[in-house]
Design brief:
Layout: H1 2-19, E1 25-27, E2 30-32, H2 35-41, E3 44-45, H3 60-67, H4 89-121, H5 130-134, H6 136-166
């Protein structure tokens, strides 16, 4: 009696595994197990190898454009989530001006640091100190480090300028 019950349970457990091994079709970068859809789209049967099929649902934002008739969908990054908090125009302008002030301050610091590095680098011939005189290899390494620091500094300045350019233009003062 127990052997029969165990056998039935094993068979019942194996049935979903057998059903999960439907034919899988590849349509470009998309996979499907719907034979009719695969035939309509001219998909190829995937043979050999294991394919894991995860059943899921489409996100609401992806399902809406698909049902819209096949038109070009707007990028999802251009729209904000429905539950995103809204901010007043004055508050947003205040945030933008604060961001601009912070970035301009960072730009001034970066330009000051860059000027100091340029002065120390001295067109590839930094001034030798006591350690450099005793160890010429250290001088070469220090020169290379200064050159790399200058490149990073230039990159930082360019990045800060790009960030400032992305900000909305500052509001004209009103009289």
């Amino acid at each position: 009696m127990k052997k029969t019950l165990i056998t039935l349970l094993l068979i019942a457990a194996a049935v979903p595994a057998v059903q999960a091994q439907d034919r899988i079709y590849r349509c470009g970068n998309e996979y499907t197990n719907n034979a009719q859809q695969a035939k309509e789209r001219g998909c190829k049967l995937v043979e050999g190898g294991n394919v894991t099929v995860v059943q899921g649902t489409r996100p609401a934002s992806a399902a809406a454009p698909a049902a819209g008739g096949g038109g070009a969908a707007a990028p999802s990054s251009a729209t904000s989530p429905a539950n995103a908090p809204r901010v007043s125009n004055n508050e947003q302008k205040s945030r933008d001006s604060d961001a601009r002030a912070i970035l301009e301050s960072e730009l001034r610091k970066a330009e000051t640091r860059h000027a100091e590095l340029l002065k120390e680098y001295n067109n590839g011939a930094p001034e030798r100190n006591a350690l450099d005189l005793r160890n010429p290899q250290r001088y070469t390494e220090r020169t290379a480090e200064l050159k790399a620091s200058l490149a990073r500094s230039e990159s930082d300045i360019a990045g800060i300028k790009r960030e400032i350019a992305r900000l909305p233009a500052p509001a004209a003062p009103t009289n």
